[in-house]
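Next up, a chain.

===
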Amino acid sequence: MKGESYRSVVDYLWQRDRQRDGGRASIGFDGAVVCQDEYWSRMEHYRRYFLSSGFTVGCGKPVTICNLNAPEYEFIYFSLMGLGAVASTVSLPFFKSDVYRHTVEKGAETIVLSVEYCSDELRESFAMLGDNVGERRVRKVIFTSAGDYRPEGKAAAYDAAMDHRAMITSLGLPKNIEVVYPGEIKRLGDGTRLEYSGGAGADLAASYATYSNTGGTTTGIPKCAVHTHRAILSMLTAHERDSYPDFPLREGDKALLLIPISHITAQFYALILRRAFGACIVYNPGAFEPHLLVRALVEDGINDVIATFGLYNVIAHSPLAKGDLKALRIPTCGGEATPKAPARVVNERMSWAGSVPLYVGGGSTEFGSAIMNAYGLEDRENETGLSLPGVDNIIVNPLTGRKARDGDVGIIYSNCPWQMEGYLGDPKSTSEFFNYVDGEGKAYGTNGDIGKVVRTYGGKPVFAMQGRVMDFVRRSPDTGRYSNGVTLTGGKVDPIDFSEGDMLFSIRDKALNAQGVLEAEALLLPHSEADKSGAPVVNVVIAPGADPFGVLKEIFSIYNGEGGFKPIGVIFRSGFARSLATDKRDVLSLMRDRGPYHGIREDGSAYSVTLPKGGEPTYSELTETSVIEVLSPPVPRKIRVVKA
């Protein structure tokens, strides 16, 4: 395929698939299979639906899509992209935070939304549309259901439990919005066989394909990163076997898709990449339920999973028999830095079960979340990896503003062929992102990731991400409290010596070394909403049956033994709140949920602290026999209308 030109991302996928067996399994979902021929027939069906709805080839229309994992969402994505529409991959938390900003302000007249997301919070969010009047407004909401494309009996059982029309009515949408109910588009094409028209139409290579919301928990207010078809095609061709043989995916592999493709560009690109290689995409109906996840890996013989590290924590602490994961050849992990201690536990457990160590990767939405990888590192450790072919990664010293020496900690800057064009309608933020220019005039961008070059492999530098600048904290000598340790001017981190503070990531990683700790998250617990400084605390999830008091003592012994930066207390939880869109922990909910924390003084005495809203902290003494409260994560409120 090298040297060929493509009109769009969808044209690329279609051209690649034309060389393969049309009866090959293309999608697997809860026991149902969609073969390649049916896949493209379905794609043509959805394409015709949107053409009949006012879309045209090369239309450039923005569409806001926020959904769970199911095959129909893939058909909708690619049919829209093939027409030249610009798909907004927005995750549920951001969508709920401001429906108006993610639709009307971007010129999106159409929303695609999972009916499973119907909730009281979503009803409140749609109220932001008001009467939905004016030239720019939302005109249609297409509701989809994870019941579609399941086997007939399972689909009927799934849909029978809920009254979708009543759930949608309960949202109180403005009267002038057209509603498309779950299954309506699919039913229009049931029983029909169409021949896909392939790449016919306008050349969309230079057109926008997606505008994707960047992560908001660590980088601030989410922005929309705009990528062109040409940028995505550059990333896909960089992974082709003839130019990048270390990528171990093979035609016919089963790739488990866990995080909705509407969450981040990384998952969207991961889907496209696996589709290009001819993998069968397996949509997991159990999301992050441990027993369903492990069953899918074992019974379905999954070869490849793309997910954040939290998934593999679940696998490592789930019931497994020796050899259960022998088919799992490509356990891929991306996103935030992977802590060494739990990574070791996970890798040992997975190797015992027949798999291989994690394939670590990293990047950011602005770069299609694909700038580094550890596919080829035979002796990989706690590292993000090597630069992908064509990607130029450098470390900039925040004290000098110049390229750092190997081994020095600094800020990671990147330049690559598949980077974004910029932030949609926000030239100021775009210039602040691409704020470093080398001597040859090449512009580099950064999300404020902190890292360093730790060694070389095959003559190439190996990078390790250690967190983001927003996780860097320093102590105030006069108050003994901690605050964010960096300031920014024009998008650049002001001169700073990273040895003068510490990373919240390092606090978290130390807690993960304690026996019985399954997960941890460190953050500054503010005393009030007005005061941004706070006390560092560690939220931990411990194994069933573990003694909280014993875990508390071991955690503090680790910090006291290593000296230096340490938390003021530990909050125990039975689990972390996670959005429906991702397995990542909801850090904002942890800050709002001001549960009691527990600590141990230098003299060895233990104490508990409660933080009543609007009041002063109250302290109480702890003993070996004291009951330490274990907090449950908040449960999202949902609208579930059972059919009569």
